[in-house]
Amino acid sequence: MVLTPQRKRQIENEAIRLRWDIWNERGKLWPGRQPHPLEVLNPQIAANILGYDLQYVPALSLPFSNTGGETAGVLDRPKKTILVAECYGREVRSFTSGHELGHVVLHDQHIMHRDLPIRGLEQEPTDAVEREANYFAGCYLMPPEFLSRVFKGMFGAAPFTFDYAAASFLRPQDLGSLLYAPHGSLITYRALASARSYAGRAFGHSLAEMFQVSIATMAIRLRELDLVRHAIES
What we know:
- The protein is of the alpha/beta class.
- It is 48% helix and 12% strand.
């Protein structure tokens, strides 16, 4: 089931509202200083604002689950707790945390909910509830205004025109794969999401690393926000 533009906007508004709730409590959360915008995106702080305790644990083994398979996140509404496994890596931990926050904010039908490892937006569940939770995670972890500002600081413009010069800076040995990528491909977006330098400037961290999401997830978000314009159409 595809999310409608109206539902996407509703979900994005919920993510914005949660970030504002955190910002309004910044004096208590970060006494004596202003938080960095990335700190505001911390899922543990968001969970606290929602009245939940989000804990990172080495791994999850659930005796109540008879479905088998791996478990990366558990939402327990009666206990107001969220457990997220660390064993799948930082990207899965971060996105799974955002996904569980999405269930808290958007859905109330699950008393006890279990999620498989979720790497990011590149996973497209068939279940509408899971798709909504994924979309919320993307909206919360990669806010449009902040991501656009960071993107512009790194690449000089937002939206950014992807042309011959851009391809030369990002992949000088393989210009064709970027300039003439198939229609709908994420190749150019992935190149930007994973870049640690551009036009002679080193960033230290790529966009994906900075926001603690997978390269594919950041690429999808850049496309969603229309931050890249292609000068050469394939």
